[in-house]
Amino acid sequence: MKNISRFGIASLCCVALCSIPARADGPDLVGSPEVRVTTISGSGVTGMADGARQQAEFIEPFGVVYDDTGRLYVSDRGAQRIRIVERDGSTRTLAGSGPLTADGLWVQGGYRDGVGREARFNGPAGLAIARDGTLYVADANNHCIRRIDARGGVSTYAGRADIAGHNDGPRASATFDRPTGLAIDRAGNLYVADFFGIRMIAHTGAVATLQGFGSGAFGVSVVSTPSGTVIFAADERGLTRRKPDGSVERFSTAGGGSESRDIQGEEPLGHPFAIAAFDDHSIAFTDVRANTVRYLNWAAGDLQTLAGVPTDDGAGSAGGYRDGAGTYARFDVPLGIAMGSDGSLVVADGANKRLRKITNLDRAHDAQLGSVSPQRSNRSTYRIAFVGNSFLWQYTRWSDSIQGIVENALSTAQGAGRIAVDPYVFPGSAFGADEQYVEVLARGGAANFYVLNINPGNIYPASDLTNAARLDALAPSWKPQVTATLRKLSHVLEGLHAGLLVYTTPLPQNVSPVENAWPQLLSREGQSPPDDQLGINLNSAVRESGVNMLDLWTVFAGDLKSPQHLPLFGTSDVHFSYHGRAVVAREITKWFQQRRPWLFQSGNR
Fold first, then answer.
1. What's the per-residue H, E or C state across 138-205?
2. How many domains does the chain have?
3. Domain end residue (candidates: 133, 153, 173)
4. What value, to the nearest 5°, has the Cα angle with vertex 472 and ends 470 and 478?
5. What is the pLDDT of residues 172-208, one digit of tens each?
6. Domain boundary among 129, 153, 177
7. Cα Rg for the chain, rounded, in angstroms?
8. DSSP string across 441-466
9. CA end-to-end span of the chain, whole Å?
């Protein structure tokens, strides 16, 4: 069984009682329904023609970057040109030249500095733009970095066009090997992804290879923070993040080893290529192999497919061209990616010869990880806070999370006004830590009502999540602690005029050996019958505290007996499936709709 230490907890969710679809396919099997994909430039015809939105032609749009005015720069690798897409969608050529080959499908590369069409490129790839408007181009097959000024003047900024190598030093003598990705930080330092890793060209002109990154780098994106620059990189092994203190974390494509983190739900990472960083903990990236665009909340390990079919399909069967919702849209060789000032994304859709835009990304509902500085509630909004560890938010997006379903269902509740639900995730937390977290949030005025989940994973000593008999034997020691702690928490919240609901849920092995069967079948002990005494002890401890309580052990047992039963937990990951989240959300929604605590609370915090 996967070693997940001391699971957590809480979720609050709601759903309109008749609005939970009974389906087996969870959100992992489709793209995000919220996002929209549109074509902003390109007719799909192979060529180099400039013109209006649907008249422009591309051969292989590759790198993309916005300037401060919203103008989009595009490297057309197949045409050996740098193009500009104006805000009205019209396209013009900034620099580069060369005739089409005889078959009309490509332009032979070259090398020449000069102004506008005098200049020649050989495989222009990643782009970055400085604060003064200077554009940098990773000229991949010329093994150098080019610079373009406002009038279209092209010069060689770093590297030598006749040499592929890995020499650091002054930028004029340094060498690069197929530079592909570029990014620039607030201080003017330029970051280059090339075959040997991530290189940095300091604003002083010195080139250095940065430690902690793998070889065969494709993409790089940076975020400037008060403590320094956070660097994200994509290479043949997966994704790497390096913090300002030099510490490095990885998510690996496969078999990353002990230094690699796992994606929620044991979801495969895919094959990242180009990256756009929103902040120091969340990125979007293109997956050329699967023809998808994905979003990763790095802190939570939460991966979502924004658009395209989220299958690791090397046969190309998932590729195509289609605008529309994320569940419907298709890409064909998505390459460069960039973020606009409004938080939207633009993707260079290489084989479709178009530029695509992704809008309606709902990042506002990303789970808050360990936040102790919540946004204070106000009188116009009734806020419900869900506090817990990985059982609060695992392998989900807002629309099908417990919290999202709850908020949607309660949005029309009688007399409620505006209701907002906020997930606060405390990764790896045990029961005592979760209780303290609720207190911290409540004293900060985070919400009017708090929902806390307790399951055996909060109580197990160490990380022994399979030894139910041991937990039963220890009941005389932990039961009084749970009861006393909840009484204390209830007293604190009453003094702050805030409400509390505690709901209990089992782990899969606590209800049936059929749930989460794969790890048990692999284990030395095999499948074992569930122990109902564990649930009796846990529910008794909560009930004796006198807090508002919702026992979902019996609900899960009833669902298991249904002839229409759907999986409540993952086949290998022990967290809730889509259906499991929907069941939890349905019951919590019932509780809130019946009691309507917003009608009885004296004021909002």
1. EEHHHCEEEEECCCCEEEEEEECCCCECCCCEECCCCCECCCCEEEECCCCCEEEEECCEEEEECCCC
2. 2
3. 153
4. 100
5. 999 999 999 999 999 999 999 999 999 999 999 999 9
6. 153
7. 27
8. HHHTT--SEEEEEE-HHHHSSTT--S
9. 43
